[in-house]
Design goal:
The structure holds two protein chains of two kinds. By secondary structure, chain A is an all-beta fold. Chain A is built from no helices and eleven strands. In chain A, strands 2, 4, 5, 6, 9, 10 and 11 form a seven-stranded mixed β-sheet that branches. A four-stranded antiparallel β-sheet of chain A has the order 1-3-8-7, with no helix packed on it. Chain A is globular. The N and C termini of chain A lie far apart (40 Å). Chain B is 0% helix and 49% strand. The termini of chain B are far apart. Chain B is an all-beta fold. Classes of the chains: A mainly beta, B mainly beta.
Chain lengths: 115, 108
């Protein structure tokens, strides 16, 4: 079955960077775009961007332009999301997800920004 | 950017009752690419409905989606105890892909 398994929780200081991984299985990795979405504590969802695992092309939400980088490794069917210059308000659960028919989400990765 | 507005913010109902949740878009959703998700505390969202009215695999038929263009509805015909949760709509027809703010369905 389709599965997205993310890396574990992280604690970072303000100004640092964090890199979250998302390993896909159960389908052809290069055939579905992957999204990253975050959810701050007690809040709704915020879309961060999308990566095409086939060619590596990306598109980022305006709020994250210049701070986020999404990459992929086709040899391990893994996508990565790196967020830099972390602020306290970046504390959130970060999800990788496929949308639409067959939508699947990872289990989420809690990133805590704390001094 | 398409803004999705969900109403009501909270719905207080008893098991067995019918729940009607609304999602209104600020502009037409391309190809009616509108999804509904259920989220329980500490869990990732679970897809209920995609393409506005198609039920996802394994979702009970008491969940149904309807609507097109800018007005969409999720109906739960008879609430079961496990249905009390937060529900979100999401449009994936045009970037940036946006979400509603959620409707909490709570036990009355």
């Amino acid at each position: 079955q389709v599965q997205l398994v993310q890396s574990g929780a992280e604690v970072k200081k303000p100004g640092a960077s964090v890199k979250v991984s998302c390993k896909a299985s159960g389908y052809i990795f290069t055939s579905h775009y992957m999204h990253w979405v975050r959810q701050a504590p007690g809040q709704g969802f915020e879309w961060m961007g999308i990566i095409n695992p086939s060619g590596g092309g990306t598109s980022y939400a305006q709020n994250f332009q210049g701070r986020v980088t999404m990459t992929r490794d086709t040899s391990t069917s893994t996508v990565y999301m790196e967020l830099s210059s972390l602020r306290f308000e970046d504390t959130a659960v970060y999800y990788c997800a496929r949308f639409g028919l067959g939508s699947t989400w990872g289990q989420g990765t809690l990133v805590t920004v704390s001094s | 950017e398409i803004v999705l507005t969900q109403s009501p913010g909270t719905l207080s109902l008893s098991p067995g009752e019918r729940a009607t949740l609304s999602c209104r878009a600020s502009q037409s959703v391309s190809s009616n690419y509108l999804a509904w998700y259920q989220q329980k505390p500490g869990q990732a969202p679970r897809l209920l409905i995609y393409d506005a009215s198609s039920r996802a695999t394994g979702i009970p038929d008491r969940f149904s989606g309807s609507g097109s263009g800018t007005d969409f509805t999720l109906t739960i015909s008879r609430l079961e105890p496990e249905d009390f949760a937060v529900y979100y709509c999401q449009q994936y027809g045009s970037s940036p892909y946006t979400f509603g703010q959620g409707t909490k369905v709570e036990i009355k």
